[in-house]
C-alpha cells in the first residue's frame, strides 16, 4: 500500500523510515518532507505545505494513497482529518475537536479536572492584570503557558516573580487570547506516547526528553535536544497506574464529549519525588525527538498498528513487541538555536555515521544538487540502540562524532540522568 506522511521534521523522517520496514508498504510520500526523506529508498517528497489540504487531497487521489499519517500539530488543529475523511481517506490523527487537547492548554486543564486526572493546580487568564495578581499571590517558582500552539516553546518556567510577570507581558504581546498560570512541580519529566482508535488506548514504551539547550538541563527551552527510551524511572506498577489514572480517564472524557479521537495521545508527565504521576500537558501527535528513540525500539510493524487504529480494531492486536535494550537520540542543532541561526551549511559524514550502526534522522535539512544542507534549527537526530543505556549512549555519540557542519551544536550529556 501507499502511505502519505504529512510534515518535514525528524519525527516525520522516523515515521517514513519505520513504515517502509514493512513489506506491505510499497511507497511513502512526504509532504513536504526534508533532505532525509528525499534520499530514503521508496520515499518521495512532494512540495505541498502541511496546511494545503486541497493539494494534499489531490495527491492522495492521484497516487492512490490509502493512509495519511499526520506528524505535526498544526494541520491537525486546523482540521486535516475533518477535510480528508469525508473523501474516504483513512487518517491517523485526531479531528479538530480532538486536537484542541493540544491547541488549548485551558481546555485540556478543564478536561483533566472533570476527569479527576492528576495535574498541577492552575488558573486561566484572558488579560495581564489578574494573571499578575495571581502570580504575586502564589509566588515563584511558577509556570506560565501560552494557551495555543507555540511549536513546543510556549512554556516559561519562571524561577523568580519578575520572570513570571515578564512572561505574562510577552505572551499577551504575542496575541495569545489566554494564558495558563500553573503550579511549579518538581521531579522528572516523562513522555508517554499512547495510540488510540477512540475505543481502546495503548501506551508505547516511555521516553524522557531533554528540553533545555544547555548541558545539565540549563538555559532556554527548545523543541527537544535529545531523548531516550524506555526510561528506567517507570516500573511496571507506575506504568499501569499511568494507564489507569491518566490515559483511560482521558479517553473516557473525550468519549463523553462525543469526540472520536483516533491517533496519538501524548501525555507529558512529571513524576514527583514521591513517585506520583502528574500531567503537565497533552499533545495530539507523536513527540519529537521521542519518536526517533521509541520507534527505533519497536518490533511490531508500525503500519499494522496505525491501520488498526484507523479501522477501530486496536483491541484485536496482540501486545506490541519491542527490541531488548535502549535507544538514545542526540539532536545536532545549528549554532544559535533556539534563537537566530544560519541555514544552508553543507552537512558531511552522515553515511560514515550510519556505518557505525546509528540511524541519522533529518529534521532541518534539504537536498540541493546532491548535497544535504542545513535548513532549520534542529538539524539532525542521531539515534542509536544498545544492550543497555551506557551502550546506546556510546553508540549514538560515536555516530555524532562522524558528522560535521559549520557552527554545529549538540549536548554532550544526553542521558545524564540515568548514566550517572
TrEMBL record:
<protein>
    <recommendedName>
        <fullName>Phosphoribosylamine--glycine ligase</fullName>
        <ecNumber>6.3.4.13</ecNumber>
    </recommendedName>
</protein>
<feature type="domain" description="ATP-grasp">
    <location>
        <begin position="109"/>
        <end position="311"/>
    </location>
</feature>
<keyword id="KW-0658">Purine biosynthesis</keyword>
<dbReference type="Pfam" id="PF01071">
    <property type="entry name" value="GARS_A"/>
</dbReference>
<keyword id="KW-0479">Metal-binding</keyword>
<dbReference type="InterPro" id="IPR011054">
    <property type="entry name" value="Rudment_hybrid_motif"/>
</dbReference>
<dbReference type="InterPro" id="IPR020561">
    <property type="entry name" value="PRibGlycinamid_synth_ATP-grasp"/>
</dbReference>
<dbReference type="InterPro" id="IPR020560">
    <property type="entry name" value="PRibGlycinamide_synth_C-dom"/>
</dbReference>
<dbReference type="GO" id="GO:0006189">
    <property type="term" value="P:'de novo' IMP biosynthetic process"/>
</dbReference>
<keyword id="KW-0436">Ligase</keyword>
<dbReference type="InterPro" id="IPR013815">
    <property type="entry name" value="ATP_grasp_subdomain_1"/>
</dbReference>
<dbReference type="InterPro" id="IPR037123">
    <property type="entry name" value="PRibGlycinamide_synth_C_sf"/>
</dbReference>
<dbReference type="GO" id="GO:0005524">
    <property type="term" value="F:ATP binding"/>
</dbReference>
<dbReference type="GO" id="GO:0009113">
    <property type="term" value="P:purine nucleobase biosynthetic process"/>
</dbReference>
<dbReference type="GO" id="GO:0004637">
    <property type="term" value="F:phosphoribosylamine-glycine ligase activity"/>
</dbReference>
<keyword id="KW-0067">ATP-binding</keyword>
<dbReference type="GO" id="GO:0046872">
    <property type="term" value="F:metal ion binding"/>
</dbReference>
<dbReference type="InterPro" id="IPR016185">
    <property type="entry name" value="PreATP-grasp_dom_sf"/>
</dbReference>
<dbReference type="Pfam" id="PF02843">
    <property type="entry name" value="GARS_C"/>
</dbReference>
<dbReference type="Pfam" id="PF02844">
    <property type="entry name" value="GARS_N"/>
</dbReference>
<comment type="similarity">
    <text>Belongs to the GARS family.</text>
</comment>
<dbReference type="InterPro" id="IPR020562">
    <property type="entry name" value="PRibGlycinamide_synth_N"/>
</dbReference>
<dbReference type="InterPro" id="IPR011761">
    <property type="entry name" value="ATP-grasp"/>
</dbReference>
<dbReference type="InterPro" id="IPR000115">
    <property type="entry name" value="PRibGlycinamide_synth"/>
</dbReference>
<dbReference type="InterPro" id="IPR020559">
    <property type="entry name" value="PRibGlycinamide_synth_CS"/>
</dbReference>
<keyword id="KW-0547">Nucleotide-binding</keyword>
<comment type="pathway">
    <text>Purine metabolism; IMP biosynthesis via de novo pathway; N(1)-(5-phospho-D-ribosyl)glycinamide from 5-phospho-alpha-D-ribose 1-diphosphate: step 2/2.</text>
</comment>
<keyword id="KW-0464">Manganese</keyword>
Amino acid at each position: 500500500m501507499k502511505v502519505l506522511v504529512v510534515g518535514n521534521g525528524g519525527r516525520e523522517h522516523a515515521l517514513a523510515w519505520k513504515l517502509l520496514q514493512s513489506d506491505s508498504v510499497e511507497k511513502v510520500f512526504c509532504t513536504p518532507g526534508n533532505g532525509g526523506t528525499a534520499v530514503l529508498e521508496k520515499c518521495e517528497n512532494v512540495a505541498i505545505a502541511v496546511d494545503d489540504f486541497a493539494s494534499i487531497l489531490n495527491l492522495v487521489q492521484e497516487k492512490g494513497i490509502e493512509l495519511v499519517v499526520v506528524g505535526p500539530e498544526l494541520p491537525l488543529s486546523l482540521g486535516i482529518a475533518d477535510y480528508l475523511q469525508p473523501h474516504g481517506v483513512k487518517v491517523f490523527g485526531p479531528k479538530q475537536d480532538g486536537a484542541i487537547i493540544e491547541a488549548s492548554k485551558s481546555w485540556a486543564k478543564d478536561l483533566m479536572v472533570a476527569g479527576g486526572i492528576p495535574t498541577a493546580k492552575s488558573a486561566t487568564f484572558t488579560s495581564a492584570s489578574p494573571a499578575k495578581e495571581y502570580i504575586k499571590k502564589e509566588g515563584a517558582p511558577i509556570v506560565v503557558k501560552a494557551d495555543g500552539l507555540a511549536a513546543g516553546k510556549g512554556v516559561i518556567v519562571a524561577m523568580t516573580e519578575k520572570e513570571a510577570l515578564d512572561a505574562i507581558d510577552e505572551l499577551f504581546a504575542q496575541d495569545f487570547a489566554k494564558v495558563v498560570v500553573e503550579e511549579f512541580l518538581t521531579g522528572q519529566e516523562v513522555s508517554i506516547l499512547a495510540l488510540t482508535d477512540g475505543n481502546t488506548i495503548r501506551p508505547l514504551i516511555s521516553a524522557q526528553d531533554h528540553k533545555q539547550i544547555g548541558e545539565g538541563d540549563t538555559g532556554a527551552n527548545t523543541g527537544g535536544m535529545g531523548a531516550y527510551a524506555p526510561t528506567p524511572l517507570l516500573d511496571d506498577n507506575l506504568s499501569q497506574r499511568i494507564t489507569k489514572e491518566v490515559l483511560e480517564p482521558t479517553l473516557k472524557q473525550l468519549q463523553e464529549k462525543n469526540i472520536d479521537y483516533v491517533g496519538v495521545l501524548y501525555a507529558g508527565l512529571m513524576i514527583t519525588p514521591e513517585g506520583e504521576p502528574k500531567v503537565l500537558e497533552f499533545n495530539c501527535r507523536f513527540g519529537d525527538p521521542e519518536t526517533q528513540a521509541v520507534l527505533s525500539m519497536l518490533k511490531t510493524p508500525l503500519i499494522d498498528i496505525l491501520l488498526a487504529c484507523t479501522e477501530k480494531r486496536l483491541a484485536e492486536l496482540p501486545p506490541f513487541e519491542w527490541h531488548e535494550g535502549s535507544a538514545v537520540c542526540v539532536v545536532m542543532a545549528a549554532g544559535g538555536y533556539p534563537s537566530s541561526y544560519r541555514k544552508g551549511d553543507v552537512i558531511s559524514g552522515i553515511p560514515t555515521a550510519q556505518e557505525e550502526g546509528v540511524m541519522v534522522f533529518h529534521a532541518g535539512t534539504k537536498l540541493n544538487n546532491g548535497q544535504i544542507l542545513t535548513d532549520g534549527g534542529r538539524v539532525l537526530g542521531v539515534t542509536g540502540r544498545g544492550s543497555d543505556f551506557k551502550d546506546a549512549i556510546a553508540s549514538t555519540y560515536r555516530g555524532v562524532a562522524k558528522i560535521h557542519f559549520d557552527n554545529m551544536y549538540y549536548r554532550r550529556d544526553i542521558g545524564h540522568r540515568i548514566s550517572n
